[in-house]
What does this fold into?
Amino acid sequence: MSFPRVALESTVLAHGLPHPHNHHLAHDLDSIVRDAGAIPITIGYINGVECIGLSDDEISMMCVDPSVQKVSIRDIPRVVARGLHGATTVATTIRSASRAGINVMATGGIGGVHRDAQGQPSSDISADLRQLALSPMTVVCSGPKAILHLEATREHLESLGISVVGYKTDTMPAFYCENSPYAVDVRCDTPSEIADLTRARDAADLPQSILVVNPLPASMALSFERVQEVVTDALSSTAAQALKPAEVTPFLLNHVRQEIGDRALTANVELLKRNAALAAAIASELH
It folds into this structure.
């Protein structure tokens, strides 16, 4: 008897959360997906080999080994050729899962169009968006990360033909923020409705993922206005003006963590759990 499968990224374990929060999260996500009747498939690279389903020991290693590489699409040849351990990003997880016949994935927030030091859209665009346009997956997340240029990211999703589906929401959340000023393409209030959209996408032979955005409830979410205020303040600082383009995003992430503190970590962990549960429910409907 086969069971539905849900793909999970490994970068959030190796690079997204500190230890021991990452190890606890790995255990919780496994339990949440299994309790919903699906099989969690955490993807990564071990000694340069793509692994569709890391073992418990391999997941534990990902959580503590500082040598684990962050593997986006461009990094695959280097990691494979040099036999390195690697944690897959959203883009790489989507690619690996789709190639393995897994059609549902859960993550936290996706990448998008980054800001430059003046707060405007930059040419730094996450590989997540391109991979979403190339892989017929159903990806459950809590929207783009709040530090991104959200308007440009939303427009880019539209340009790539990626349907943004709001789960019980009419507006796109921004990671740990419950909402943003930007509308979704369609609202669905049940996993069954999302499964219907997925089947319609497949019947039309469209190559793009369906992006399901699942907001945190207001009681757990951070204020969108507050996060944007922190980002604006950071960009107006003298330190920001001296940054190279590739340095802006890490600078903003660090500033948000410093200003908002433990609430950001708590919200991050909670949304990952909720997204895993929703992804498992969708996978079960599709199975």
